[in-house]
Amino acid sequence: MISKIIMIFYYLLCLFFTIITIKNLIEEKTSRDKVVLYLITLVPFIARLLRFK
Amino acid sequence: MKTGLFKFKLIAVVVFVLLIISGGLPLWQHRHYRVEVILGPGVSEVKKLSDFLPAIKGSQADTKVYILRGKEPGGQVLIIGNTHSNEPEGLLSVLIMIENAVVEKGTLYLIPFFNHSGGLNTRPGEGYPLYFSVPTSWGKKTFRMGNRDASPLDQWPDPDVYIHYPEKQMLSYLDIRNTNRTWPGRKNGLPMEQVTYAAMELLRQNKIDLAIDLHGAETMFPVTNCIVAPEKCTRLATLASLTVKSMEGFENHVEPSPVNFRGLSHREIGDYSDTLPFLLEAPMPFLDQPTGPKTEALFLTGQDEFLLSLAKKKKLFVPYDQSGWPLEKRVGQHLSVSLEIIRQFSKKSPERVIIIKNVPRYRELLENGTGYYFHNPAVVDQDKIVID
Q: B334 is in which domain, residue-wise?
């Protein structure tokens, strides 16, 4: 039971980091490097949220 | 500048989405690919592990248990494959039994996908193929190539250190998802502990006499090409080993089950139930580290030039030549040794005899190949097909 609760929190954490990274991506006005960095950072979170890996 | 960055962002996002789709879709398809299991003439009933522990019902930890009952009562045996889903010779051996075996006396319990979640897991980081196919007379039968451990999608997060229950031995964090480190399991534990607990309940409730766990092992690992057995099973294992060597012409030595290494089926089943446990290791070159690419061909043939070079330097624990260590040899060994353990047990315990017919042995596998024993799902009754 406790492992399920931890798992749910983990998914919520993934969702939180996905949202703030997308927010930062949208608000980025100057740096191409940061755009690439945000997109690379998103990969593990998206892969987990979509349950690919 | 702002318009330039907007265009760059747009292109980068499109590339990102395409990469996510092209990389993620094959993994998603693998997780949702199902194998058709044909119920042979001997299958009496299909249960699930959750019948022995309802807590895992509806989860990917649950798996099917195929039961083959004989016309006459007798002893009982459990055989499991895919404890490690990257060692599928066990899976194939169990599926051959499901499709072909007929039990005359006693009962045979078969679990082909023991770590069901591990079978849905992948190992792309080491370049493992997602699938492998076994050639048959009617085409190819395709299976998922799984991973050693359960998928993190089904059990996560891992602890920093895995403390085995109930022996309290500290093991690698990863082994909490390894169903050959979580025996005898825990009723309220993590999913893989529950899988082994449910299997222990299956063994205890049905008073099963023998449990045989089928694996593959590296040729460079000393515990390979062998029967691992605890003290109480050594005599049976030795008799089986000597018999297959003299009658069928292949080596399969006996390794003692270490007393101080916890969580393994060959140790905990024996310590926590009356069942006699055995773990069979077939040499599997695909698992060795210093090989060429991890291809389907390497899995099927076991042929690798780097291992051949190491064999010449006597670095392997099994004889190895250009013929490699093909799948039919590995599956044939598992089938012959399993049947021999059962036969030796039956000779020793006349009141618990188990007689199984129609299961091919080593020589037949070498002659006919593995695929010969799988039936074409297109020509069998639909009610004889189980999706697993």
A: 43-387
Query: How far A44 CA lies from chain B's nearest CA (Å)?
Result: 10
Which of A6, A39, A50 has the CB atom closest to B24's CB atom? A50
How many cross-chain Cβ pairs, A to B, lie less than 8 Å apart? 49
pLDDT, one tens digit per residue, over B66-76 is 999 999 999 99
Query: Which CATH number does the domain housing residue B307 bear?
Result: 3.40.630.10
> Cβ–Cβ of A10/B13 closer than 8 Å?
no
Is B16 a domain residue?
Answer: no
pLDDT per position as a tens digit, B258-307: 999 999 999 999 999 999 999 999 999 999 999 999 999 999 999 999 99
Report how many domains make up chain B.
Answer: 1
What residues have CB less than 8 Å from B15, skipping those under 6 apart?
Answer: none
Concatenating the DSSP letter of every residue in B273-319 gives SS-EEEEEEEE-GGG-SSSS---HHHHHH---HHHHHHHHTT--SS-
Q: Residues of A with CB below 8 A from B31's CB?
A: 51
Q: Do A43 and B153 touch (CB under 8 A)?
A: no
Q: What is the pTM of this model?
A: 0.95
Written as six digits, the tokens of B81 are 């494959």
Token pair recorded at residue B313: 């330097």
Alpha carbon distance B27, B21 (integer Å): 10
The answer to whether B43 and B68 are in contact (CB under 8 A) is yes
